[in-house]
Amino acid sequence: MRAAPPASLLLPLLTAAALLFPVAPARAAPAPPPPLITDDRGRALVLHGLNTAGSAKGPSGLPWITRADVAREVRAMGTNSVRYLIQWKNVEPSPGRYDEKYLDAVAERIGWYREQGVHVVLDMHQDIYGPAACAGAGNGAPAWATFTDGLPCTPQTPWVLTYLQPAVLRAYDNFWNHTGSHPELMRRYTAMWRHVAARFAADPAVLGYDLMNEPFGGTRQFGFFETPSLTPFYQRLVTAIRSVDRDGWIFAEPQALGPNEGLGTSLGPIADPRPGGPRVVLAPHLYPGGVDIGGSYTGAAKALVQAQFALWKANMPSAARRLGTPMWLGEVGGIPGSAGGALDYTADWLALADGLGVGWAYWSNDPGDVTDAAGNLTAVGRLLARPYPRAVAGTPTRIAYSAGALTVSWRDRAGASGPTEIWFPTAPRVTSTDPRWSWDAARHVLSVWPAKGRADHTVTLRP
């Protein structure tokens, strides 16, 4: 979802929902360290990347990128991950028939990321259910899985208001079987995900699977949707994926309305049957109301957005602790450059993510956002190309970026091996507690090997 409803619609909904989902209470003692997303060497991953791409919402289901574009992005921005969009309608164009040519094209593009050492999260994307729900306004579900029961629909401006059209609400209600008429739809979706996971389980570039972009409950929202419908649906998907992929990380999003703006979630625990411990990640999005549809980040509007930042900072980590999962910011967008405070907004949500120690995927890598028509980084792109630890051989205890300098501290953890890797845009001056380190000028990556007999480590990089 690229936008939030206008304040005239959003604020009453959020005010009512806040009664159900208050800000997480202050904790009397420091919170325990959250679980970590790890790589195959047990290193903690801090995922910085882009959503690829809005262009993949089109009929082909494929993004605009070439192999050269992927290499250029990694060189310029140091990204180590990508949230790669795919669509149900392209995977399964008719019931039970999977389009292997489409999946071959996806696999080819994943190969481009694999060449660059980038972790791929496959995102089953949808907005407004699917193109058949409302005159082509949406993306995601195939026409054969779209049941609007003859209700009307007119695409709206701003586009998110189309979610409230009768046909769209009914399409979602039928998918979630709120109507009792189409239990087969969730079964088909589950089988489709099992097929996709089986196809990519052995691909070392595929870190995992984002089960559904911004779930929307139709006529049921908040606790009336997430608890009785979304949680068991996710459980069904996890169980199916684990039958073909034991190790991939599974990213579960809360519903979009409310959590995107900082409210809490009633999503329940999701059991992971894999041996060796669960690999489920809470993957909320961040879209403060009004900002993404042209609002500014100045004056009273800025104060409102900052209040939503504070809500998100309290409620999303609290939900991750309750669920016992790592957290990843799966989508966060900018605001138009013509709107006041666009760069301040980007800097502030980056500081929010850094403060929480969570990775992110920015929306999006489509030309004109982080790069201009010539492929050069925009002002926003240059902000996103910030130093960060790509992989930490232990438990991160501090990640601090200020005035161009980055300090990373970590503690040894059983099961983690190999060097800590830190991306820095220029050759750095290095101060390290561990004397063995090397600089890869081609990748702009500093590798630090832990010294024997030392449990705590700190390295500082300066331009």
From TrEMBL:
Keyword Cytoplasm part of the UniProt annotation: no
A Pfam cross-reference name: Glyco_hydro_5_C
Signal peptide: 1-28
InterPro entries recorded: GH (IPR017853), GH5_C (IPR041036), Glyco_hydro_5 (IPR001547), Glyco_hydro_5_CS (IPR018087), Glyco_hydro_b (IPR013780), Glycosphingolipid_Hydrolases (IPR052066)
Keyword Lyase on entry: no
Sequence ranges assigned to domain Glycoside hydrolase family 5 C-terminal in this UniProt record: 386-460
Keywords: Glycosidase, Hydrolase, Signal
UniProt cross-references to Gene3D superfamilies, sorted A to Z: Glycosidases, Golgi alpha-mannosidase II
Domain Glycoside hydrolase family: 47-367
Family classification: Belongs to the glycosyl hydrolase 5 (cellulase A) family.
Name of the protein in its database record: Cellulase family glycosylhydrolase
Natural source organism: Actinomadura parmotrematis
